[in-house]
């Protein structure tokens, strides 16, 4: 673990989440590996030196690990890996074993070690950023701290110490904020690291010249991403509420069976194209390969909000351009009791759909949690496999709720039937792709869950 922590330059969550097949190719130890970072969702390549490869091979043989297992499995369950908290304790034990103070080091210390040595030799900050997998050209705070330490040593102490003292005095209120001493890029860097608290330094993105304009621009970008997430969420929520009225022919000016009549062939062609466009957008943008490509354009924190926004626009296009096909009528429940029962199932389905989103984290599903984490300077926790409430009996209660809402109609016209069949077919295909991704992420844990719990119909087998 220590060797890999130094070589990979990974964050703790990425290091403990490594699987055996990430560092071993068949029966051969890989000289380099590519892993998707949890924080940025971008691929990061790192080299594994011979000493580390030998240590990894010996560990895999001693622990009898299979390719799909975690490289550092938990002592509690082999289906999970060592937690980041336990990794922090392990790092503290390493530090204490060589006689240093564990309070002065953390899980980022191994991540910084190799990068700092490379920077001291080459003074190439951009190379260090690429090696550590940073997504921005600007330096992160910990590299700046290392850089400022080097500047302290390289600059004349006689020139630099008064500036450092002045910055400390400004922070403590003993010197006016407009005072300037030897205002150069290097001294401004040291002053800002003293005056700006840690949480704000995480929020701001420092440029090479570390100017106030760059800091303002960074703050604007962060707040823009948060507002972008809010707008995407509001649009999605409004579109979903309209869709409920659209499917049920309730409350909205244009519903599934209302509108100007058109030729049957035209209606079929337009409606199928609308459903196909929605299915392609939903499926393609949900794939991991597309997300890796899309992350080069959209910041990782905004990726989910962009997906939600695109899905909302595709759904809004259906609601706007749908062509009604009122005849023939497939069924018409004239009984008051039967109609009320179908309306009850209709509202139950939408309630189950909404409840399911909150059971699996509503705000993360719609992208708000990601943009808020960026605003607050926090790192999202590692996703964990959970089966709360409805998920103990149905693997996909969200889709079950949608199907109930689509099919529970007292009057089923040909247009409504086409919409329901198209959405049902897409849901079944989407479940296949989604479960494939879940198996790739959670392995045997999800396979057992799939064998025990029904996909859309409530079922739970004994373990």
Structure notes:
This protein has 21 helices and six strands. With 463 residues, the protein is mainly alpha-helical. It folds into three domains: 2-101, Intergrase catalytic core (hpI Integrase, Chain A); 136-210, no CATH class; 231-452, no CATH class. The radius of gyration is 28 Å and the shape is elongated. β3 and β4 form a beta hairpin. α6 (108-122) runs antiparallel to α7 (125-132). A two-stranded antiparallel ribbon has the order 1-2.
Residues in β-strands, percent: under 5%
Our count of domains comes out at: 3
What does the radius of gyration come to?
A: 28 Å
Shape by Cα distribution: elongated
SSE string: HHHEEEEHHHHHHHHHHHHEHHHHEHH
Largest sheet: 2 strands, antiparallel
Through-space gap between termini = 34 Å
Specify the number of helices. Answer: 21
By secondary-structure content and strand pairing, the structural class works out as: mainly alpha
pLDDT < 50 stretches: 137-141, 144-211
Secondary structure: elements and pairs:
Elements (H helix, E strand, L loop, with lengths): L1 H7 L3 H5 L3 H4 E2 L2 E2 L2 E5 L6 E5 L2 H14 L20 H14 L10 H15 L2 H8 L8 H14 L2 H15 L13 H11 L2 H6 L8 H37 L15 H23 L1 H7 L5 H22 L7 E4 L3 H24 L2 H4 L2 H9 L20 H11 L3 E3 H29 L1 H9 L11
Antiparallel strand pairs: 1-2, 3-4, 5-6
Helix pairs in contact: 1-6, 6-7, 8-10, 9-10, 12-15, 12-18, 13-15, 13-20, 15-18, 16-19, 19-20
